[in-house]
Amino acid sequence: MIGMSGPILFRTARLSGRAPYPGAAALYGALFGPDRGPARLSADLQDWTRHQVAPWVLFHADHPVGVAGFRIGFGETGLELSFHFLPDVAGQGLASEFVQAALDTAVADLREDRFFAFVSAENAASIRVLDKAGFVREREAKGKHLMRLKLTPRPPASPKGQDG
């Protein structure tokens, strides 16, 4: 098991997220390959240090299961959403759970309501997760879909006992 580092910054019913940290190198290697993993971890560490916005290292039952979160969308409007989970947790609904909670967190904590994601045209599972969250396909280039989401502000919750 990869050691955990730093406080929990993100939580759902089944997932907890921490800032990227050097000890997550094995997870990044498993997710992105031995060639791309170290560069991806380095970029996430730099983004976190500079902006406090970068994908979190996600844990389920105290085991690392993925890297997911936001990047500042230089060149695009809004925050870029990405999510990558180990294959052995596929089909458990963790990606859908993550995406909805992450969007709620971004709206509440980062005050952002515009999001985009790049997803491989062949990645049907991720496209379904994004479709379910309300993203729409904008265009395709180099085998990837650009999907966007603009959230509308939610009305404030009614006090208990009052009808809306």
UniProtKB/TrEMBL annotation:
PROSITE patterns in UniProt: GNAT
Domain N-acetyltransferase: 8-152
UniProt entry keywords in alphabetical sequence: Transferase
Superkingdom of this protein's organism: Bacteria
InterPro entries: Acyl_CoA_acyltransferase (IPR016181), GNAT_dom (IPR000182), N-acetyltransferase (IPR051531)
A single GO molecular function term of this UniProt record: acyltransferase activity, transferring groups other than amino-acyl groups
Protein name, per record: Acetyltransferase (GNAT) family protein
